Amino acid sequence: MDMRKSEDLYLFIVSAKTCTQIKSRNPKATSGSYIIDPDGPGGHGPFMVFCDMNDKMAVGVTVVGHDSEKRTSVKGFESPGSYKRAVSYLGGDFDAVAKLSGLVDASKNCEQFIKYECYDSVLFRSDPYGWWVSRKLEKMTYWGGATPADSLKCACGVTSPNSCAGNNGCNCDINDSKWRKDEGLLKEKSDLPVLQLRFGDTGGMGEKGYYTLGKLRCYGEE
């Protein structure tokens, strides 16, 4: 391959802020790994992502994975938030949060799937046992499918009428001896990505839970 063409292609890709920008520049671009630089020269530096060029009406979705995507058991942690899981992005890059903040700010939309499966394990209720931590290191007490204005609520708690088990804010808050789940997409850009997961109320006999956290997905241009 001609070295000049190779260099031009590299600069073309790295100069792109998001996968959406890559797709808009080259409508024939296919899904795969690309290097992007959301905050440009002099910023926090480029990094590699996966570009899904088919999802969201083929607009070009930037996908960033992490080390906590596997469905994970929580058992033996009774106090609120006593279970802690820090979420690491970009292979543990020390500048990952700053780099991903640049991606989020450069994108029109971002989302991250979150789910908690519970058996006799409360999520929020009036005194939260579980929560997640935002990129600003703030304790967040709304769940996937809800918004920051929906404190102590999950997706079922913001439907009209309320569709949660027991008419609570979340299905898990009924705290009965049945498997329940609360899941949905977190979409508030200023809070993403999720940096930590916290859970409790799994220390008693039979109490247990499982959590799942999806990849960060951003699309559109700001």
Summary keywords:
extracellular matrix structural constituent; alpha+beta; 4 helices; four-stranded antiparallel beta sheet; 15% helix; Contactin-associated protein 1; Fib_collagen_C
Structural description of this entry:
The protein is of the alpha+beta class and 222 residues long. 15% of the residues lie in helices and 30% in strands. It has 4 helices and 11 strands; from the N terminus they run H-H-E-E-H-E-E-E-H-E-E-E-E-E-E. Strands 1, 2, 3, 4, 6, 9 and 11 form a 7-stranded antiparallel β-sheet that branches. It is elongated, with a radius of gyration of 20 Å. The two termini are 35 Å apart. This is Contactin-associated protein 1. One of its GO terms (cellular component) is collagen trimer.
Any chance you could write out the topology, listing elements then pairs?
Elements: H1 3-14, H2 19-25, E1 32-36, E2 47-52, H3 55-58, E3 61-64, E4 72-74, E5 83-86, H4 96-106, E6 107-119, E7 131-133, E8 139-140, E9 179-186, E10 196-199, E11 208-221
Antiparallel strand pairs: 1-2, 2-3, 3-11, 4-11, 5-10, 6-9, 6-11, 7-8, 7-10
